Amino acid sequence: MSRVGILVFPGSNCERDVFTVLSKFSGLEPELVWHTKNDLRGYDAFIIPGGFTYGDSLRAGAIAAHSPVIRELKKISEENLPILGICNGFQILVESSLLPGALTVNSSHKFVCKSARLVVKNNSTPFTTMFKKDESISIPVAHGQGRYVIDNRAYRKLERNNQIVIRYAQNDINGSMNNVAAVCNEQGNVMGMMPHPERAVWIQMDQDIRPEGSGVFESLRNHLLWH
Amino acid sequence: MSELTAGETKYLRKKLGRKPSAFELDVVSAEWSEHCSYKSSKKLIRKFPNRSKFVIPGLASDAALLDIGLGYVLAIHIESHNHPSAVEPYGGSATGVGGVIRDILSLGARPIALLNALRFYPLDNANKRYSQSSRWLLRNVTKGIADYGNCIGVPTVGGEVEFDRGFSNYCLVDVAAIGISKREKIIRNRSNKRDIVFLVGGATGRDGIHGSSFASKKLSGEDRSAVQIPDPFTEKLLIEAVLEAVDRGCVNAMKDLGGGGLSCCLSEISETISKGLEVDLSKVHVKEDGMSPSEIILSESQERMLVITSQTNQAYLTEILSKYNLSYSNIGSVIEGKNLVIKYAGDVIMNLPSELICRAPLIDRDTIPPESKSEDRNLYFRERPSDLYKSILKVLANPNIASKKWIYEQFDHEVGIRTVLKPGTADSSVLRLENGKYLAVKLDGNSKQCDLDPYHGTMCILSEVCRNIISTGGKPLAIIDHLQFGSPENAHIFWAFKQSVRAIINYCEFMRLPVVGGKVSFYNENNLGPIKHSPVIGSIGLIDRSEWIMMPRFGSEESIFIIGNTKDEMGGSEFYETTGRAGNGKVPIVDLNDDMRNAKAVLRLIREDVVSSLHDCSKGGLAITLCEMAMRGGNNFQVDLDKIPNSCSSISNLLFSETPSRYILSTNKRKRLNTMLSAISGLEFSEIGMTTNNGSESFLHHSKLNSPVILTQKNITDSYENLGTIMERTPVD
Amino acid sequence: MNTNTSKSRFIVLVNIENKPYVSDPEGETILRDLIMEEGYSVVESVRTAKSLKMIVRAKNPKQAEKMVMKICEKLRIFNPIISSCTVNVVKSLP
Amino acid sequence: MNTNTSKSRFIVLVNIENKPYVSDPEGETILRDLIMEEGYSVVESVRTAKSLKMIVRAKNPKQAEKMVMKICEKLRIFNPIISSCTVNVVKSLP
Ligand SMILES: Nc1ncnc2c1ncn2[C@@H]1O[C@H](COP(=O)(O)OP(=O)(O)O)[C@@H](O)[C@H]1O
Ligand SMILES: [Mg+2]
For domain A2-226, is the CATH number 3.40.50.880? Predict the structure, then answer.
């Protein structure tokens, strides 16, 4: 059994969804971890779920980035443990500099909740090995501050290092630079993504959404099994 | 400060045997406002049927409880925030969401879904000023709902929007919430002497003082008292903390704070637990210094809950509250007797029976039916295929009909991973439940029809909302209602209110549906007078199996059937609205027997697995229903209008009449379906055409037309996206 | 369109803040959960506000300010019920 | 806590705006509405910014500004990747 810590902050709101989904994957043992915890030993991976930590005050993720649990996470990230931030989790990871770039207000200036077509560009991270390179998948998004921004030089570096893991296949989502939907750090163990894979796991009635988010969690399980 | 009438003042003095103090008067007049006391409506709405084998009686006060099996219960409630939203649409709508969520929370249930019903002036009207104001209201109301609901992590799964000239400089914002719980976790509101009363959550400030009497007044200019600032982050903490406290068994009784603030909350909970309360207002945590006892007790500051716990559990409760960094104060305790004792810094400033405060003297209002409307003018409409074609696109583009994507894409409708049918995909929203069943839910309203005829208009809404549930495969389980009218002091308006109530009683008794909750909102008036009568009805239903969940999307090569007769019933129709004939025509009449027969037939077909797609036929009429099924399925249709059972005097009436109780469905088992329907005596139905996937055109044939009406996927889709087009229009240079 | 050459260009700063009696949950959260949490007790209070920087053409600074104020009111860029708004020319552009 | 009586109180305005390379959807929306609704072609551009008004205790205005700037940097009150930040004392309180 691999223990996956789901970090919970005041205002997180997808932690129970991620918990429910993870517990359907045999081999993964999810556990909710409250943000005041300052000892993160004993876990094999971490997920920071979506939500509105601290009500998105100042900027999404800005306040949570200062919490004790993130300080610990920074130490652990160097040990190459898989760390996944989803939506607000992604925002927390960039605000705490665990990932490069910034996430800011959507170019529509509105919250957007819909199914997004995506293309997997890097299938060698712990969260994407189950996908084929350039595979196209559909996963819903739901965010108000998801526009990925970074300066040109840093962007080129991301491309060179293969750090852009997923892109949107449509350009009416949030105005992200070159349609970036997910990035990872240089080592590849820390990844942030705006789409919500946990929302595309059940068999949905709506044809627009096939359960293509499962690949993210299956990849994680396989990674933990073999590493 | 007192808002009491002369009669009420006299009654109060007689009951007290003395002159009330200024403080007592403040408390009593808050509770005796129309908004809190239902003094005009209570006698009437008491007659709603409210029993069924699903309803759990006697527990719920803030929201109704339904037993859905395997130990699970659902809570449901509806509220409006009309006045605050009309002056501060962002804060008003947001705090409206917060309020209805706390109603669910106060039962100990976890909120799992939100819906809303909104009414505005047309967005794109010749009156530019009203339209501009309407777009401002729509933008900010939807943003308020989105920012609040999204932040607290409760999906907004559906709703309803209507645009009408009756809402100049005004809007109606109704919000409904659903919660789920295990039956044994529900708060029973039983409390013992010496239990401790905590006020939890946001600090109490001067905001919103007299808000509930504000809601019981006509809107006049700027009124600061009702401005409320939303704090969804605190609400989210409140939800998690309260549910954790419930889970650990440290809540004996609980109530949300809404209209009337502490004064209503304390007197009502004292009544509910049948005990007295002693509370010291100087212990309340406040936002600002120097608040008077009246200001503290009347404040309608948001994001607060009253929690009553035992002495032994007190430490657990405060530990949980500290975990979530929530402010709280221990403001008093439960006492012997049935009085509400209010102190300030130790001195008793009020000691009154809670019952006296809670039970305002009820009023019998006068009713006068309106002058009967002038006869229907004979209106000529040219019925060439090109005219019919244009009308179809025009009705599709009418924001009342057009896609509401611009609105619902702002709402997180997926958090909670239980939304199976999302907004925009089907007639009602469908949610997966913990007990393996599925919940279908929808709100509906139709102020155009209700304005012309409140009785039949309300009937139409009831019929439509139930058809929406049935069209996704659900069996209606219960009804909630929200009755929004102008001033009850106007005898014409009160007459209409009574008609609406009568319709609900008649429909629900016939269908054996309990009315499990609701709200009355009077004094909805703008600068031009009262709004159109706007009852909003909600329905929830259960679907036992996922195979029974239906959607309105045509497949290819399927036979199309219609169930139900189509009549010349054009009053309040979108076709008349779009073609400049608003106010004319007869409002459709619901034939209860037909309604029941058709509904049962459809549910049977679904359970026999002979239906491929299904849609109820209502707003916009048959033409719109077919176009929607074509768009959603990406397939086309060939329909022979001569085959439709009808008594219409024209082709346009046949296409656009809003006769209730009709369904359109497609099937690839036409023979079995035919046999099954033929066996039902009295059922009107027929096979009217086929779906196709070759080419991109749909055809409507009629023997009186020299050529068919031809519609392309692109035409109908472009028209259907008109709401977004209006709201996002880029400037032309 | 009708670029009146007799006009100059100004940078106008519009500041919109909640009236003093209107609470500001965002400011409170920043103070409590970020600044206090990190031990900076010299900060007593935080209020958030919004500003707009506009470049406008007008005859003179006075006219620029008047015009911008009118626009803000008409377009309801702020709601006078909860916020107050100040308008100041901060710079004349060449 | 340790209220140093030798200190005064100041209102400090922190203004956070996007760097020029980061677009400002809210400003663009306002500009678009402005032109669409009212034809105010005299407005050339609109940029929005966020500000925080803090009350802080410090020895003098200079120190107040320095201290607040330090807090802003350390706590990332602004995100240096996309925004810049100015800090100004706008008032000394008694
Ligand atoms: N129109 C109505 N139909 C049915 N029940 C109603 C109606 N109006 C109010 N009620 C019921 O009366 C009770 C009190 O309503 P309400 O004043 O909304 O409660 P509160 O505001 O305290 O939450 C609730 O149970 C509500 O469902
Ligand atoms: Mg209530």
Answer: yes
